[in-house]
What we know:
With 323 residues, the chain is of the alpha/beta class. It has helices at residues 41-47, 114-134, 151-162, 174-182, 195-203, 217-223, 249-254, 263-269, 271-287, 303-312; strands spanning 2-5, 16-19, 29-39, 64-72, 84-88, 97-101, 105-107, 142-146, 166-171, 187-190, 208-213, 227-235, 257-260, 294-299, 318-322. Helix 2 packs across helix 3 (151-162) and helix 8 (263-269) crosses helix 9. Residues 10-321 form the Enoyl reductase (ER) domain.
Amino acid sequence: xxxxxxxxxxxxxxxxxxxxxxxxxxxxxxxxxAEAMGVNFPDGxxxxxxxxxxxxxxxxxxxxxxGTIDAVGEGVDELNIGDSVAVLMPIGGYSEEVVVHKAMVQxxxxxxxxxxxTALMCAYGTSHHALKQRANLQAGETLLVLxxxxxxxxxxxxxGKAMGAHVIAVASSDDKLELAKxxxxxxxxxxxxxxxxxxxxxxxxxxxxxxFDPIGGDAFDTCIRRxxxxxxxxxxxxxxxRIPELSVNLALVKGFSLMGVFWGxxxxxQPQDYMTNQQELFQWYxxxxxxxxxxASYPLExxxxxxxxxxxxxxxxxxxLTP
Length: 323
């Protein structure tokens, strides 16, 4: 089988494809034949040594795999060969076959495609946790989503609507804004030199209850000044490349909270809440309240192109790899 190898922290073009023996499941393990592997912004940072986590090298990047169980080890009774499943991994996902402990496996409800399943894990999982556990978003509140054309942004738009919020989508291009509109955004604002004036005109003196920010940089500097009393500003990431600084007097006079969102740690420390969230996402998917947008599917051998596309900021929605 083929898998992607990161031999050392280096530019994405240094990744290699290796042919290795198929892994055999041991006690309480299953082997999954991959049909889709999710590609995420942090994956591209990780292989370059630019992410918070730095695993020992060499390693196989990738955290999301969806496919079919094709082998089970001793002690596995609740899962069977042929089951459609998804798994979230710390690393190791960019591989045609993966072996994992049975407790990590999520059976997929009928009708959930492997590509959509990968999106419903990290991208939708991050946005769901941010809006539910961190912001405690309430029906009728105003939610502003930065980066609304990306995978977590589209997820935040849809989840915000599912939770009853009025959603303002902010994105850098017209095609991203159009996609956000298709996924339920109520208001559209372009992230350009007029962002500050346009937001001020839109929300006036009311302010914004919750801001979802995977961008950072200049957008943070602008949006933080539009917070409502008792507002919650969600720090998701820094896709702009600049980690902004906050004049904390703004939080004092406006009475808002700045909240960090680190989904990977949430999954580790609150596994039951994570599983409950996933069940709710799958239910919303069945009801048509959320529907991930797949931007492109790349063969595993084109992993470099896939990662570079995601890091470019030009992707709309989710990118996946396929065997």
